Amino acid sequence: MGKDVIIACDFPSKEKTLAFLDKFEGKKPFVKIGMELFYAEGPSIVKEIKARGHKIFLDLKLHDIPNTVKSAMKVLSGLDVDMTNLHASGTIPMMQGALDGLTREDGTRPILIAVTQLTSTDQETMERDLLIHEPIAEVVMHYASNAKAAGLDGVVCSPLEAGKVHERCGKDFVTVTPGVRFADGDVGDQKRVMTPAEANRIGSDYIVVGRPITAAADPVAAYERCCREFIG
Ligand code: C5P
Hints:
Oligomer: single chain
Shape: globular
Structural class: alpha/beta
Bound molecules: cytidine-5'-monophosphate
Distance between the termini: 16 Å
Order of helices and strands: EHEHHEHEHEHHEHEHEHH
Number of strands: 8
């Protein structure tokens, strides 16, 4: 599994996204397309960025009954993305359905990862709103084990959890970690952060970086710094 920096393209329109990617000239960073951009522009934005030669993580976090998720994943698979995701809380049958829908006739498929507990959920909200009373770290590990049991490739998790996920699910189980900040940068609304170098040491396979690159005065330089610190 190749280590890489994924840029979160959290832009509201195609124009803004392509103007941002144009700055990279010959380089083709791995990009994340989330709900905002996908719902604004539809599948055509995925096709256009793919045609420009970028790898794509389509971050739509599916969660529905197994049959619906399976059918939706079949459609996403046809968009030829490299990675996509769902919520582990949809249960093992939903994750198995997703994997089935995502797998193309020739046996190939995008990398499929699961969101465990969102980093916006803490122990208190999990207990109060979801009536889950186990320690949140245990819940995250249990959801990661479920994702592995369902045959998925990995999870989205905090960089602080990546090492433990590898211990529990194996070193080949992919960890994709947001919440990355430069040592001298703004933390913004992320609560638990790590530098790219720390994320590397702890064993993250992919880091997802948004504002430290997209809001930088020189996004290309910020991306290159991120790659240097994370990949070496
Ligand atoms: O700008 P920033 O680096 O905080 O962007 C992080 C990206 O990772 C955003 O697209 C955010 O939605 C996503 N993400 C996250 N925490 C999660 C899951 C996804 O920050 N638990």
